[in-house]
Design a protein that fits this description.
The complex is a heterodimer of chains A (336) and B (121). Chain A has 336 residues and is an alpha+beta fold. Chain A is built from eight helices and ten strands. In chain A, strands 3-4-5-6 form a four-stranded antiparallel beta sheet. Chain A has a four-stranded mixed beta sheet with strand order 7-9-10-8, with helices on one face. Chain A has a two-stranded antiparallel ribbon with strand order 1-2. The termini of chain A are far apart. In chain B, strand 2 and strand 3 form a beta hairpin. Chain B is globular, with a radius of gyration of 17 Å. The chains are: A alpha+beta (336), B mainly alpha (121). Strand 3 of chain A pairs antiparallel with strand 1 of chain B, so a sheet runs across the interface.
């Protein structure tokens, strides 16, 4: 598999470089702990453990000699390699997106800290156990707390993200521009909804409900499904607001969920008859982010980091003209 | 929907808010069933008084263009007459130009009538 890593150029500056090696190392470190912690415990206490221990869905053989060959043949080894490959490939695919890299570090910590903590507690409870041991109820609480702590720790360990590049150039002459008076204030509001995202969210909600009704013991899987459902549902209906502070996308039923593009990060705006190629969702991709609901006109913001923000609206021309109007007014004042 | 106000304008801010909505209806960027942004949001974003925005919305309600209900978003009604609004917007623009050129009321009306007759002919 070939993962193209974009090279830096004057038009696509590599602003993600500061701290990237640190984020890469932290991303790679998590899954290693998944193996190291059980290895260490089995090495230390192997003789006092049952021959086979089940940690969540993974079984660990403790009856053999704790050799490297023995560990490589364990299912846990395969799990570790799979997670490692997944995280590293994801990191390389988002080479220029520090915000995605930070999320990967948090995910890596979740895998590398939360799962081993839960496994270690379980292994320690099995020491010298005469027979079957019931899983204590408090273990779930500890697992949830460890997961939340690991996410927060990973987020913090990723460190501050490099600042996004800013631009001060006025929009090009071909871009539609609304003339705003020196004291004029303006706001533009529109909303969009996507039947496709609503359908995906409904299917995910049904799957989540099914896993809950089946009494699945793996709460982590159910939580991921629930969060994915919320993420898709959030994109089913969104509101866009353009005002003096920038361009903001809000989720009407979840006001805390919002993303703003401030004007210093916008080169110019344009209206297009349909969305440009690429993936435009509420999270980041190499192409950019946004909300695209099927075919139709879109507002396209050319961002200072070389990506785009895309939003489906039938009033794309008005929206683009207002954004360029704000940019022209702010930047002409700055340059005079 | 685009809402603009200019504190340096002679027109009151409430009138400007109402005029923005009328303009959106006239040029087709707003349609029956669309929701207006909440008065609180407009007031906060544009830095004007909440009651000023509400006065603008009440004008639109009195004209039958929007439906206002306590605690719910203002919605553009199905009866909003786009033809009449376009005509009013065009007339306003014409009146603005006529005033700017210094034409008297009679001269402006004669010019409008002449243009109408010329186009019909």
């Amino acid at each position: 598999m070939c993962i193209p890593i974009p090279s830096a150029s004057p038009y696509h500056p590599d602003h993600a470089a500061p701290g990237r090696v640190r984020r890469l190392i932290l991303t790679a470190a998590g899954p290693l702990l998944l193996l190291i912690v059980p290895m260490t415990l089995v090495t230390l206490y192997g003789e006092r453990l049952p021959d086979r221990v089940h940690i969540q869905n993974w079984a660990v053989d403790t009856g053999h000699e704790p050799t490297w060959q023995g560990w490589v043949s364990q299912p846990l080894w395969g799990v570790m390699v799979w997670f490692e490959a997944l995280l590293i490939v994801s990191f390389l695919r988002h080479w220029r997106l520090p915000q995605v890299q930070r999320a990967l570090v948090a995910g890596s910590f979740l895998i590398g800290v939360a799962a081993p903590v839960s496994g270690a507690l379980w292994l320690l409870m099995l020491l010298d156990a005469p027979g079957a041991v019931a899983r204590p109820a408090w273990l779930l609480t500890v697992e949830i707390a460890a997961a939340a702590g690991a996410l927060a720790l990973g987020w913090a360990a990723a460190g501050p993200l490099p600042p996004s590049p800013e631009t001060t150039a006025v929009p090009p002459p071909h871009a539609p521009t609304m003339t705003l008076g020196p004291w004029q204030r303006a706001m533009f509001v529109t909303s969009a909804w996507s039947a496709r995202r609503l359908l995906v969210a409904t299917v995910l909600a049904a799957v989540t409900a099914w896993t809950v009704s089946e009494g699945s013991g793996a709460w982590q899987g159910t939580t991921v499904l629930a969060l994915w459902t919320v993420f898709e549902m959030a994109q089913a209906r969104t509101r866009l607001q353009i005002d003096g502070s920038g361009v903001t996308v809000r989720v009407p039923w979840l006001p805390a969920l919002r993303r703003t593009v401030p004007y210093p990060r916008i080169r110019f705006a344009e209206a297009r008859s349909e969305a440009p190629a690429g993936r435009y969702r509420l999270d980041d991709s190499d192409a950019g982010w946004g909300v695209v609901g099927g075919k139709g006109p879109v507002l396209v913001l050319s961002l200072s980091d070389g990506r785009r923000f895309v939003y489906s609206t039938r009033e794309a021309k008005t929206a683009a003209a207002l954004v360029n109007g704000w940019l022209s007014r702010q930047r002409q004042v700055e340059t005079t | 929907m685009l809402i603009t106000v200019d504190p340096s304008s002679a027109q009151s801010l409430a009138d400007q808010v109402a005029a923005s909505v009328r303009a959106a209806l006239a040029n087709g960027t707003a349609a029956p069933g669309d929701r207006l942004p909440s008065a609180r949001n407009v007031a906060t974003t544009l830095g004007i008084n909440l009651h000023t925005v509400l006065r603008g919305y009440q004008q639109l309600r009195d004209e039958g263009l929007v439906e206002l209900r306590r605690g719910r978003a203002a919605v553009i009604t199905d009866t909003a007459d786009r033809f009449r609004l376009r005509l009013a917007a065009a007339a306003e623009e014409f009146a603005r130009v006529a005033l700017h050129t210094g034409a008297s009321e009679e001269e402006a009306l004669v010019a409008a009538r002449k243009a109408l007759l010329a186009m019909r002919a």
